[in-house]
Amino acid sequence: MRSLFLAALTTALLALSPVHAGEAKPFATAKTIDLLTLLKPPPANDSAQTRAELAEVLSIQVTRTPEMEAQAQADVVENVWRFANVMGPNFKTEALPAFSAFFDRIVATEGEVVDPAKDSWKRPRPHQYSPLVKPAVKLSNSGAYPSGHTTVGTLMGVVLSNMVPEKRNEIMARAWAYGENRIIGGIHFRADVEAGRIAGTVIAARIMEQPEFQVEYAAAKAELRKGLGL
């Protein structure tokens, strides 16, 4: 009976859910989760902290390997499939339609919550702060603080690890690396990434309280665990 209910629920959700993350309905916006009140402001451009963070970026720039650069470039993509290396061979888009649509909404939520804070604080990216910085990843000129990639990586990691607690350590290590790769790629400062981790954790906690989230989460979790043979 439970399996029939979940199957019907999955079908209904797929009928309502858009395919592409850019069309997905977010679970929250900046009006419901205001990062301007939840995060401290970024370090000032002329502060000792920003100078130290710039030194870190420049140090990594001369020590990063081609393999590190390749990983940072791959992590420019913002979707849950970047966790495939820890989830196993059955973790595929075509096999998990309800799960995929659910995480499209997770990704859309990050943009809706984080982008207004970026626009308000307008912290320069490392390459905007210093011409010595040569990013190894695609350039972005949006505000640096907080890091959107780190936010969504953390958010996805928290939700995914709740679905598959057996892999929690590996999933959260992957989420951590997702943020570190923004520094390795030379596109973010340390404080941007640290703020992104806080933002992602807060967003996860807030949206998990919503009945709408809980319904879609249950269907996505059931589909994922079945697909992984758990």
From TrEMBL:
Q: Name one GO molecular function term.
A: acid phosphatase activity
The entry's keywords? Signal
SMART domains recorded: acidPPc
One Pfam annotation reads: PAP2
Q: Where is the signal peptide?
A: 1-21
Where the record annotates domain Phosphatidic acid phosphatase type 2/haloperoxidase, the positions are: 101-208
What transmembrane ranges does the database entry give?
A: none
* Gene Ontology CC annotation, any one: outer membrane-bounded periplasmic space
Q: What is this protein called?
A: Phosphatase
